[in-house]
Amino acid sequence: MHYLATGGTIASSTATDQGGAGASAPTEGVSPRLTAEDLVSSVGALPAGIAVTAEQFEQTASTNLTFEHLVALSARATMALRDGAHGVVITQGTDTIEETSFALGLLNPTDRPVIVTGAMRNPTLAGADGAANILGALLCAGAEALAGLPAVVVFNDEIHDPWFVRKAHTSSTATFTSGPTAGPLGWIHEGQPRLAHRPSPPPRVLPRTDCPPIAMVPLSLGDPLHYLADLPRLGYAGVVLDAFGGGHVSASHMRAITRLAAEIPVVIGSRTGSGEILRSTYNFEGSEMSLLRAGCVSAGVLTSRKARVALALLSAETPDDPLRRWKEFTERY
Ligand code: DAS
Question: How far away, in angstroms, is 311 Cα from ligand 1 center?
């Protein structure tokens, strides 16, 4: 299988120490330095039948990744899969895995999986989790059970669907969760990947490098959102409202939102981070029903961040009608 390293905590060390628990002064700080080969070596002897080709794709914090990186990373993964790799493992920083894994699944045209993982404890810390996560990812990359899934996140011995997985804790090694909306797809038991259930095949999008800027606007109590009307002028081609609860805004925002929805796609997500956007429960000014009437569309079961990724990729795929396939994404369940 092929392994693509992009940096992140899993590859981070101090300038003076190249890994080793307790090796660094606590205040010195770490940054991505360890190579793809270093990280494969950190796993130790690989299980029988697993052979890895390692490649350094990037060396950065995951907050620096862009849609251009993701399209190029996906193209590299696709090439490896078409060249015969059973699966591709990608390591990266955990901060953006909930977005990158979702994009990589949408962009994977093959029936072999891309497995995304990382670490919460860098290699200078006791109990660093990187090697265990790489091993889990390699085991999943070779597993027949995962064939047909375009991407999964493997972390802390759990296997997650990129459609649901979220980073939910700043430092815990159990930071990734697919709850409370869904649970993990499976887990790893004594070196064996187990799938409790299989999602239906998700839609895919064509890789295009020119994703236009899509804004995500956080709704919070009493914020007048003065900049809302300026988003198209600032170059944004769409916006996801990270709205209250089941998909609500303040009545005072409705005028600006109605105007905005006449200019660019406006998607309603929820700042709760889980559950589905309501469609037909509340009918006050600012409710989901009033937003849908105003021309907004629902993020459905997607979190606001994942809806933003979908809208960016679809806007690049079909610039003149980005919402043409929107229901494939929001009415999948
Ligand atoms: N270093 C941060 C990142 O690159 C956090 C991490 O990797 O866990 O996302």
Answer: 24
CB 58 within 8 A of CB 6: yes
pLDDT digits 0-9 by tens, 184-240: 999 999 999 999 999 999 999 999 999 999 999 999 999 999 999 999 999 999 999
Output the DSSP codes for 161-196.
-TTT-EE--SS-TT-EE-TTTS--SEEEETTEEEES
**For residue range 51-98, what is the model confidence (pLDDT) as tens digits?**
999 999 999 999 999 999 999 999 999 999 999 999 999 999 999 999
- For the CA of 64, the nearest atom of ligand 1: 4
CB 218 within 8 A of CB 225: no
pTM above 0.85, yes or no: yes
**Two tokens, residue 301:** 């079961």
Long-range contacts of residues 182-187, Cβ cutoff 8 Å, at least 24 apart? 184/158, 184/159, 184/160, 185/149, 185/152, 185/159, 185/160, 185/161, 186/145, 186/158, 186/159, 187/157, 187/158, 187/159
Share of the chain residues as helix, strand and coil, in percent rounded to the nearest 5: 30, 20, 50
pLDDT in tens, 297-310: 999 999 999 999 99
| CA 159 to ligand 1 center in whole angstroms | 19
Residue nearest atom 9 of ligand 1, based on CA coordinates: 93
